[in-house]
Amino acid sequence: MATVVELKPIREQNEDVLGDKKTPPPKVPSLCSMRYGIALLTHFSNFTLIAQNSIVSITMVAMVNNTDYQPHLNSSTEVLPTDLNGDQHEAAKHLSPKAPVYNWSPQTQGFIFSSAQYGMMLMQGPAGFLAGKIGTKKVVGIALLASSLLTLCIPVATSLGLGFLLATRAIQGLIQGTGYGGQFALWQRWAPPNERSRLCSIALSGMILGTFAVLLVGGVIIEALGWPFVFYIFGAVGCACCLLWFILVYDDPFSHPWISDPEKEYILSSLHQQVSSEKQSLPIKAMLRSVPLWSMCLCTMTHQWLVNTFIVYTPTYISSVFKVNIRDNGFLSSLPFIVAWAVGILGGQLADFLLRKNFRLVTVRKVITILGNIPPAALIVALPYVQSSYITTITFLTLSCGISPLCQSGVYINALDIAPRYASLLMGSSRGLAHSSAVLVPIVGGFFLNQYSELGWRNFFFLLFAINQFGLIIYLVFGKADVQEWAKERTLTRL
Q1: Does residue 26 lie in a domain region?
Q2: Please, what is the Cα angle at 216 between 213 and 222, to 5 degrees?
Q3: Which residues are in the Major facilitator superfamily (MFS) profile domain (predicted)?
Q4: Staple 39 to which of 130, 202, 452, 471, CB 3.0 to 4.6 Å?
Q5: Domain of 110: which CATH number?
Q6: Could you give the residue ranges of the DSSP H alpha helices within 372-481?
Q7: Within a domain: residue 321?
Q8: Is residue 23 part of a domain?
Q9: Count of the separate structural domains present in the chain
């Protein structure tokens, strides 16, 4: 006679708490709750990591002697007003005389941009798996500290030579990839299903805020102190963030010393059907054959192509078209990202609102993903055709970048829907695959822009549109939002 043996969850204590729960208790208010506190701390963790990763996007304008690589501009291009446009040679006089300048071609700059992305691409999947085993607190905390220390070292590495700079950024990319991928294990244990969109959008929006902060204050710091101090300041900020992380973040509600009992009960009970098992092996073959999983990964990657274009090339594009000084370039480049930060958080609210109104989960995920892909890609393709007007150009850039984070509540968190037990590994792996675009975008961009600037931008943006829409179509056709068979709890039987 067969007997069924249930697989135990990771923590036996959690099993005791969850064993008698048939239905979740009433929802605990989100205001001042520990789960939203964890989301906020993860927000600042992502802020730190992306800021340190994208510093070079704004400092590159000051690090490179642009007189050797003048862009070809249309004679009808509108110049900026006097207060926003300045003679770049005059602006250079205000830069710190101690800050060195290098003769790097656009292709060399592309390699510098992409050098940190190889590690991020490789480490996010393994980091998600590792965090599921030893805990997010250790994985992300150590990554934060190491990334911050390396950020402090980048000016020295640059002075030693291009090879040292590339090596330092490559190592930093491995560490930052560990920090990114390791965070997703938190939401397996902290995010009730009906709050996932909001919690994840709050956490992921930290990446956008980090880019905004670097672009906004980076130019000011460069003009006042020199480009090395951008690395010093954000490296110090990272060390402070690391301290807060180790003090306040815990891997799950059960082990958190300051969480209220009602909130702990609410979270654990809402997740009692989705707790992973140590004894249950990974269904790797089923994962590799899963079309919904592959469609999610592909759409995430093609959307990240769009996002990484914004992060890497917004300051360069504005400088190329309008020839603004570094301070004003930073201000104009940051505008799209503060809009994107707000839209990313509001997108999570919108997704959960639609779910509360009984819209199908798959419909919500796909509609949000459509809004985060089609309008931004169309607007960015239009940029070369409106560059004669700086107001229209900045408006299109702001709208394009600002709308794209809606995907944070769409395809980006789809792994929590189709495979909640393996969400940490799958979200890390999908983001790791998506970071292949962060490697390719600077290289492809450098290839196009090294030839002829105006035509290069146009062709680069058309390629972006084609790649982005291809991934979206695949996701719309094959994407799912129900738990896949291979991701459901399995039981062991004995005769």
Answers
A1: no
A2: 105
A3: 38-483
A4: 202
A5: 1.20.1250.20
A6: 374-382, 390-403, 415-418, 423-434, 436-449, 453-478
A7: yes
A8: no
A9: 1
